[in-house]
Specification:
By secondary structure, the chain is α/β, with parallel strands linked by helices. Helix content is about 35%, strand content about 15%. The protein contains 11 helices and 14 strands. The strands form 3 sheets. It has an 8-stranded parallel β-barrel, surrounded by 6 helices. Bound molecules: phosphoenolpyruvate and manganese (II) ion. The site of manganese (II) ion has 5 residues, from loops.
Length: about 350
Amino acid sequence: MIAVVKETATKDQLDHFVKWIEGRGFKTNVSQGDNETIVGIIGDTTQIDPFLLESMDIIERVQRVSEPFKKANRKFHPEDTVVECGHGVKIGGGNFQVIAGPCSVEGKNLFDIARAVKASGATMLRGGAYKPRTSPYSYQGMGEKGLDLLVEAAGELDMPIVTEVMDPRDVQLFLDKGIDVMQIGARNAQNFPLLREVGKTQVPILLKRGLSETIDELLMGAEYIMSEGNPNVILCERGIRTFETRTRNTFDVNAIPVLHHLSHLPVVGDPSHATGYTRYVRPAAYAATAAGADGLEIEVHNNPSEAWSDGAQALTPAQFDDAMRRIRLIREAVTAPVEEEK
Ligand code: PEP
Ligand code: MN
């Protein structure tokens, strides 16, 4: 971290500042230029609040030179992380997986949807048993019965399941049921007690980007999980809230290569929540695949107009099948070896 000192600062003030920093266990490196003086602060600067330094009279501005996320950072872990999701399914490091299924688990139709998406090439099954709804009067999910249906479907179809956990008090239940991948939803992306709780397990975590989260904040969410000892984190770009109202959210496709640049963790794109309308889901899925996502999460329903949640963005099994054919082609194009530049 570097602190740029104001031109007006006296030598006494600068010495006092340096002493104050060193008194907190950091080393300093003062470089006096013609126009400005810079104090380099060396040590674990994640412990320093940059706003506190900037609030000091003699400090012009403060800049971090290393990111506050360490375990999620590609700098300290250059090779891609591959997360084992159960049933032999791996994601990341060249392993591409498609997670598909209904928004909510609704009952036995889960099995019809699961069979259809598997036949089209989905490798993981999704479905929410605990639903984070904006209104407390909307359908809240089947709860434990929904988890049981998912586990039954996972066994029958031999594919891992992804389902959202909303409450730290439910984590043990998810463990007892043998849930393969726990999803942290956008609304809980900064629910730090929940992140810590799932971090105490070794179960893969699909961490969605918060509604208004920056990329760095998403990575700090991953850091919460990893700092508790769980390295199995999958990041998910699911659209962010912007001024645009024509779509449910704005799909930040940029985030996919940016996350790959900054982090070694696998990155999944969710074109369903990113767009909110069935007609836009396929183009957004193709964009995410082309941008190098390690996987996609797509909502599929056998009868979208009757779905208990998110029917407006569900693909039918036929639409999903069509999407999968094109996704495979795009994936081939993206992963084909690059010819040497002449
Ligand atoms: C979901 O996956 O159904 C969901 C609620 O997603 P998000 O948290 O991204 O809104
Ligand atoms: Mn949904």
